[in-house]
Design a protein that fits this description.
globular, 7 strands, two-stranded antiparallel ribbon
Length: 152
């Protein structure tokens, strides 16, 4: 996919498949979200994908995954995003309930970030806060985006 070398699959969701990749121009790890072939032929779903890209590109917030690029190659549309290492909130909760001391900072950060999203009218087709990533150094400040979008 152009300057991006796919390394491994990360997951799949309702709006695409996500791969860990290497940006050969900037020598960094990225996440690439690819619109599935069967979606690419549906104009409504393709518009939703493009709307998601525009929405994410308009956001600039320390707790929202960054969109680096958008592209199309051989009829395949894709988004190139920041790749985050860490466990998702869902995975963390699978290990057991959070203590109040862990939950409160996370909840406050999530609410504040969701407030930013709603203020920018991101809508349901934009960034998805259903599975925040608890990325190492920012464990008290999760990044919002579906795990399938930018996390390992």
């Amino acid at each position: 996919m152009g300057p991006y070398e796919i390394e491994s699959p990360l997951g799949a969701g309702g709006m695409g498949e996500v791969y860990k990749a290497r940006d050969t121009r900037l020598n960094r790890t990225v996440a690439i979200k690819v619109l599935p072939d069967h979606f690419a032929t549906d104009p409504n779903l393709k518009q939703r994908f493009e709307r998601e890209a525009r929405t994410v590109a308009a956001l600039n917030h320390p707790h929202i995954c960054t969109l680096y690029d958008i592209g199309s190659q051989d009829g395949v549309d894709f988004l190139v995003m920041e790749h985050l290492e860490g466990e998702t909130l869902r995975d963390r909760l699978a290990r057991g309930p959070l203590r109040v001391a862990e939950a409160m900072p996370l909840a406050l950060t999530l609410v504040a970030t969701l407030e930013v999203l709603h203020a920018q009218d991101s809508g349901a087709s934009g960034p998805q806060a259903r599975e925040p990533v608890l990325d190492g150094a920012r464990a008290q400040a999760p990044r919002l985006w579906a795990r399938q979008s930018c996390a390992a």
